[in-house]
Amino acid sequence: MIALSVLDQSPIRAGGTPAEAIAETIALAKAVDRWGYRRYWLAEHHSSEGLAGAAPEILIGRLAAETASIRVGAGGVMLSHYSPLKVAEMFRMLETLYPGRIDLGIGRAPGSDSRAAMALRAGPEAFDGRYFPHQVADVIRFVSGAIEPDHPFAGVRAMPAGPTVPEIWLLGSTDQSAQVAAYFGCAFSFAHFINDQGGEAVMADYRRRFRPSERLREPAGSVGAFVLCADTEAAARRMETSRDLWRLRADRGDLGPVPSVEEALAYPYTDEERARVAINRHRQIVGAPEQVTARLTALAEAFGVAELVVISNCYDFKARLHSYELLAEAFQLPRRGP
Question: Which domain holds residue 45?
Fold first, then answer.
């Protein structure tokens, strides 16, 4: 049986506001909790006029308070911006407030352009990508309270301490984070919605390299997929047009609001732009419930996973909400409420 989870970037639609995007995130989390989704992950992006989720560590607490059963977490914390101790403190606090429901997903990418990444730096000695494995190791040490006596930070504790710890996931679209996850015995989620090439081999390599840990005895994986589901294929394809134009602009560095379907349909695409849209559509799963279910099931089988993390950005929030509801019905998720 395939479990479904959510990745939410808190998209801002054209003509909308960041506050409305955050309100929609809260509404979506409450809905998918009732519909039987396993987890709700919040992405981290900075200095974007199209994505409102700049501080998942704050929003996680609000969503956990608004929901009853679903796991809530970061998908993920962009670790290059933070000290491992501070990350551990934030997630130890969340775990204390909502024990057994918090996920700490960790990513390598900056979630921003280079200028915003520089503005986020703690100082001239800030971490770069070379230190990522060391940062992950220190986050695990602090979160679990297991720091070796000879470690430079021996005696430092991430508070509040407690009997449970968040689930730790590594997220990525290449083999780099997968290898770090395997080495430290963490779960790994592959971002198919970013890169639809070679992911099966990356997941297989993660399983081969996996070293059991106190956190996880066997490898555990999921796949993040971009999905739009509607009552008919035609309706889903119409929804897809706003995503097409938004993604095209994002590829050029314009992370503005999600355009309306009407704006997207009226946009004068060049031949080169249409070719780019066609490439982007390869990693999107769009259609009526039976079409989407078949493709998602095949994706899970190809990766050898039993969990899919669904991202469904589009202009119309009601359409996005309905897409998640149709998926829950198609996969017969165990409902927790009306």
Answer: 3-226+289-330
